[in-house]
Design brief:
This protein has three helices and no strands. The protein has about 70 residues and is mainly α. The chain starts with 7 loop residues before the first helix and ends in an 11-residue tail after the last helix.
């Protein structure tokens, strides 16, 4: 096999996972940026205080742990 500027295909194989991880990072960053600007990534502060079980489903998932 012919080496290209020292390293050849062996070095390319070692570096390929790093390149793929870098591409995944930027793709996910773009995806989350788009989600944040359109539908949002968080629930409202009121839903945080009430709890998502109550606000999303209308019931408590662990009724034994409710403050009475």
């Amino acid at each position: 096999m012919k080496k290209w500027s020292g390293g050849g295909f062996e070095l390319l194989g070692v570096q390929a996972p790093g390149v793929i991880d870098g591409m995944n990072f930027f793709e996910l960053a773009l995806l989350f940026f788009g989600l944040k600007k359109t539908v949002g990534l968080r629930v409202s502060p009121q839903d945080e205080l009430v709890g998502l079980d109550q606000s999303e489903h209308g019931m408590a998932s662990y009724p034994d742990f409710l403050n009475k």
